[in-house]
Amino acid sequence: TQLLEQSPQFLSIQEGENLTVYCNSSSVFSSLQWYRQEPGEGPVLLVTVVTGGEVKKLKRLTFQFGDARKDSSLHITAAQPGDTGLYLCAGSFSGSNYQLIWGAGTKLIIKP
Amino acid sequence: GAGVSQSPSNKVTEKGKDVELRCDPISGHTALYWYRQSLGQGLEFLIYFQGNSAPDKSGLPSDRFSAERTGGSVSTLTIQRTQQEDSAVYLCASSFHGNEQFFGPGTRLTVL
Q1: Does B45 sit within 8 Å of A104, measured CB to CB?
Q2: Per-residue confidence (pLDDT) for residue B97, from 0 to 100
Q3: Which of A28, A60, A80, B92 sits a CA distance of 20 to 30 A from B57?
Q4: pLDDT per residue over B14-44, tens digit each?
């Protein structure tokens, strides 16, 4: 079974703190995407990583793809209330350019 | 429109009734996807349309579920004889190339 496990499932921290969320699998992915979803809306793509060891930065968000392309992390520096949301990772396999395997998400709450 | 739209935004129905959910993709996008998201869960793939090709229906959970896409644009997801376990948010996404998907806001279906 192809699974993506995200941890933690829920995280509530104070504004200004740093945090890391993880996306792990026993499978090798050709690419991995991170999305943020806010209540009442669909997920919005944040980043796609494709190369083992790749690091991408989006303002205060840093995304890393594991060397073996089985795992990924999202690190947020100095979290803001606007970062609140459900963070989802989704992986794709070579030969299937549209089917994504989705994690269950990390619900993040940043308290002012 | 500028983004993917879905209607209705909320649907409450009685067990055993049929429901139709509508998706208007981004103009020009050739691919359209339907997903189901249950509370606290990731996205479950339902069906994928690409241009004039036969749709990938491998994710439909039962023969009560069907979908069509007319004229390569608007899509309708139909659930017949709804059951309580069908209650979820149904998300539609569209894409042009690759697997960057743009999501609609979803339809929240509640089966009483």
Answers
A1: no
A2: 66
A3: A28
A4: 999 999 999 999 998 989 999 999 987 789 9
Are the Cβ atoms of B42 and A40 closer than 8 angstroms?
A: no
Q: Which residues contact A4 (CB under 8 A, 6 or more apart)?
A: A23, A24, A25, A89, A90, A91, A101, A102, A103, B42
Pairing of strands A85-92, A106-111: antiparallel
Q: Do A41 and B105 touch (CB under 8 A)?
A: yes
Q: Which of B31, B41, B92 is the closest to A98 by Cβ?
A: B31
Report the gap between the CA of B8 and the closest CA in chain A (Å). Answer: 13
Percent of chain A with pLDDT over 90: 82
- Contact between A102 and A86 (Cβ < 8 Å): no
Token pair in block for residue A86: 């459900």
pLDDT at B72 over 80: no
Question: Does A25 contact B at CB distance below 8 Å?
Answer: no
- Residue B67's pLDDT band (boundaries 50, 70, 90)? very high
